[in-house]
Amino acid sequence: MRREAESVAVVGVGAVGTYITHVLNEAGFEPLLIFPSFESAKRAREQGLSLNLPDGTSAKVKGFITTWEGVGNSSLRVAFLCTKAYDVPKAAVALRPKLMRESAVVSCQNGLGSLEAIRKIVPMAEVLALILNCGVMREWEGVFSLVGCSTSYMQISERFGYLSDLLMPMELRIVEDIEPFRWLKLAVNSAVNPITAVNMVRNGAILEDPYLWRLAELVVREVASVSSAWGVEMPADPIDELRKVCSATSRNMSSMLQDILSGHRTEVDFINGAVVGRGLVKGLEVGANRALWLLIRYMESSRASR
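User: That's the sequence. What structure does it adopt?
Assistant: Structure tokens below.
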């Protein structure tokens, strides 16, 4: 088991990477945990990693902490790429020489653009998208809380069917075509992330406040119109999906809100910005998404200048 686990890596051990590592631990694997620098790896070794679970317990997250320098070339069979979307190109370039000839890279990013970028940078690998529908919050360095999950989605080819075993502890549905599910997640993210960040509220507030809900509905319907224009029909009613996700993650602080509060760059360019860009190509004006995109960009720049 350890030999197999050493060919499995998690790249980007933040909120999502910590949760993925926990799932792998539950399946009996302790993967390589690749940190971007010696200093960040050293802190992780000293402080440890843990995930608070919804039942009130805490799980120690286990893996072999290392940096890119500690990973041999052509040694990785599976890599879960869990960085922020804007860090994907740099991480994928570093990952490329570390992959075996027949390897799988699993993209865990929000929004659109990351999957396509990874496929260009590592064309020799099978690049798959994991549409993760879980709320995970950073409490402080090395400590995260899993607030709630709904069903996640993944397309897995027969050659890499063993990935479903790695992710068995997760509520995961294997689908034949991941693209409709990417757009479904994009519709939800386009509403939840910026609305909670602009208003400094948790996800559940969208269900509780009629004005926030009306705005969220407007945003989601715009994404649905863009999706249809690109020939992608969502697999479920996106309004129902929005309601389900907000309910399942009601206590969660969205990743965009967490980024704003910590002064970090957000992924809004890959979420609402992607909707605006793809809408313009099809001649669609998506005013609600554009407004939220600009508001978040303003919040990023104003906090960065302080």
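Residues 2-176 form a domain with the Rossmann fold fold (CATH 3.40.50.720).
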